[in-house]
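Consortium newsletter contribution from the modelling node. Members have asked for a concrete example of what our holo predictions look like. Here is one, prepared for the zinc ion complex that several groups have been discussing at recent meetings.
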Amino acid sequence: MCDNCKALKRDSRFLNGRRYRIHRVNLYRVYKEQIITIRLCHVCAIELFKRGEMSFLSRNRPLLRSIDRFKQPEKDLGIEW
Ligand SMILES: [Zn+2]
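And here is the predicted structure:
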């Protein structure tokens, strides 16, 4: 399941149709000196590629919140709100 679609509560299988596929993607700029690996569907992976990491995360705040909840305390966030 796509982590971004899950955070946005949308059906990634319906969104992707026949192109449904899960990509493992590394995020480098969420935390300082730590790489976060998330799973994205084809549509979300394309959006990440087109926008870039910071823009993608700022437009998908629920994903950022779900990463934050499981990984690190808030003080280590390398992103400006
Ligand atoms: Zn997705």
